[in-house]
């Protein structure tokens, strides 16, 4: 039975942190590009996710990788995996 848990892959996304004002939570914007079925134009769409950041390590503007897990609240079900690109905003 433990073999099935190892085979299951996590739903992993990458996006930019647009808010870090909440306690242990960051809001991440994920961009998706697709071609319009009728007009053949490349479209961009964005979706925001609330991501659990236990150590509060992600900052505004960082590029982060996160994955889906069990729900922590009504809207928060994603967990921070790692910070891919950090933006240092210290003056």
UniProtKB/TrEMBL annotation:
NCBIfam families: PRK05610.1, uS17_bact. Coiled coil: none annotated. The gene is rpsQ. This is Small ribosomal subunit protein uS17. The lineage of its organism: Bacteria, Candidatus Babelota, Candidatus Babeliae, Candidatus Babeliales, Candidatus Babeliaceae. Keywords: Ribonucleoprotein, Ribosomal protein, RNA-binding, rRNA-binding. GO terms for molecular function: rRNA binding; structural constituent of ribosome. SUPFAM superfamilies: Nucleic acid-binding proteins. Part of the 30S ribosomal subunit. One of the primary rRNA binding proteins, it binds specifically to the 5'-end of 16S ribosomal RNA. One of its GO terms (biological process) is translation. It comes from the Bacteria.
């Amino acid at each position: 039975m433990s073999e099935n848990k190892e085979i299951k892959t996590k739903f992993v996304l990458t996006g930019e942190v647009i808010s870090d004002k909440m306690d242990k939570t960051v809001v991440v914007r994920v961009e998706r590009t697709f071609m319009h079925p009728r007009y053949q134009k490349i479209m961009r769409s964005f979706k925001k996710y609330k991501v659990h950041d236990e150590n509060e390590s992600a900052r505004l503007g960082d590029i982060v990788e996160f994955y889906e897990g069990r729900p922590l609240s009504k809207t928060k079900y994603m967990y921070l995996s790692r910070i891919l690109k950090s933006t240092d905003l210290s003056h």
